Amino acid sequence: MTxxxxxxxxxxxxxxxxxxxxxxxxxxxMREAGIGxxxxxxxxxxxxxxxxxxxxxxxxxxxxxxxxxxxxxxxDKAAIIVDGRYTLQAPEQVDTDVFTVVPLAEKSPDxxxxxxxxxxxxxxxxxxxxxxxxxxxLERAVAKxxxxxxxxxxxxxxxxxxxxxxxxxxVVLHPLEHAxxxxxxxxxxxxxxxxxxGVDALVISDPxxxxxxxxxxxxxxxxxxxxxxxxxxxxxxxxxxxxxxTDLSPEARTALDRxxxxxxxxxFAQVLGxxxxxxxxxxxxxxxxxxxxxxxxxxxxxxADVGPDPITGMKAIKNxxxxxxxxxxxxRDGVAVTRFLAWLEREGPTGISEIEAVEALExxxxxxxxxxxxxxxxxxxxxPNGAIVHYRVTSATNRRVRPGELFLVDSGAQxxxxxxxxxxxxxxxxxxxxxxDRFTRVLQGHIAIARAVFPKGTTGAxxxxxxxxxxxxxxLDFDHGTGHGVGSFLSVHEGPQRIAKTxxxxxxxxxxxxxxxxxxxxxxxxxxxxxxILVEERAVTGGERxxxxxxxxxxxxxxxxxxxxxxxxxxxxxxxxxxxxxxxxALEPDxxxxxxxxxxxxxxxxxxxx
Length: 610
Description:
Largest sheet: 6 strands, mixed
CATH architecture of the largest domain: Alpha-Beta Complex
CATH class of the largest domain: Alpha Beta
Oligomer: single chain
Structural class: alpha+beta
Distance between the termini: 50 Å
Organism: Methylobacterium gnaphalii
GO molecular function: metal ion binding; metalloaminopeptidase activity
Strand order of the largest sheet: 4-3-2-1-5-6
Helix content: 25-40%
Protein name: Aminopeptidase
Number of strands: 28
């Protein structure tokens, strides 16, 4: 008998609503350390979004399981600051008698600190969990209040009984057929960037950049194939590579031995200090380098050049092999998602649960034979749970879908040739007129981004409003960005590109982003429509400037039952019908006859078009 496949997701609720005991233990540690407050960010030493279990300090302390947030614990009060994705989730998870939940849109962590700490308070922080810019903000906040800031060892770790160990997962090579460029060639390009910047060496502190530069993938965190560690790339000479894991495949060890000096992660600070003491001018990443790295370099007599890691921008522009892999991954994923949507239409009215939906979708992906992982925990929200932007179903929150409700499923997969991320919102039974109106307005925003044509040099912030116009016209909006960058068998959330009010980076051909406007009615339902899109050069007849546009990569039907055709313009209707025709053509050859018939019906043209 074949053993059951290990699932990539669990539904445990181990972090839900922690009581006051853990905060009391932290306060006792604060008193012993002689400080009056401590900052607990949702971060590891690399500022990663998905962190290993031993870095889930914020969840352990507060119960909040979101991917971003900051807690500040003072002697007599505490707050947790979260962004717009989590303003509904956080109050459900944390003990609000202990923590005040503060929306980031109303107050940043440093603003809350400036308003709430008493004069002469010493605020502690772990310098390995904050960037230099983050520390500077804390310094300004405490100075404004008349307090002081002090670097200390992590006090949460001191009181966290049973804290998990540092992960050390298996490390493998990312094959050239998927990477599209050798590690030697990438390192040569990196050195050219260092030469142009006038620095002696680069510290790679972002594990995503480490994976890209050395063509490796690991298993140190859930959902993203990262090998945690650091590298030092000198302008001349061999790099030093410091991995948490010593569990390397023979092929990976051989390849890395040719490229770099392999050393234990524990020796990183010592080697960095020795290099800095020559002295050397060393670039550390403004976005991910811990403040402790800057201090290590300075204390050794070197110069810390805090600026962008050039790898971040290089990694964002996908090469031909990565683009081909992404297209193949999305076609494969589209087959699985379409099978799931057909299943959902059959089974949904019988009252399937949110967990059953997650398991079914993962099974459909696994049946394709190439699934390596899910790219993030599936958001499976029925009815009011769909209004929680980053809802994660647990055994405690699991509910069944009901006729007359909307069901929102946001999911993704990791394949060796690409990373996917797709959201579909489906009507269970007959939707209301309001649901159809809101869904269609979200769809109009989605189409506006998909059809956008813009000059080279345009930033994501400049086109973000395209996704909101139809909602704004009805006095509506959504409180998250419209799109994030996506990696190539790497993180489902990859910078520096994004489509958002804060998206200051110019979009370039080869970048992959999401297109995911939404609408959320608290306590009732949520709507989001998400496809991944590839930035490509676009010729415009008679145009005077180089232009860009988007190719939609994601292939899966959009629920016609939720569309109000009278709201769509002829151009929007044409786009939708063309998209559905493309979905049919791409997916039908790999579908069983029953699902093929369902897809034919689900993607029939709107408005009688052929």
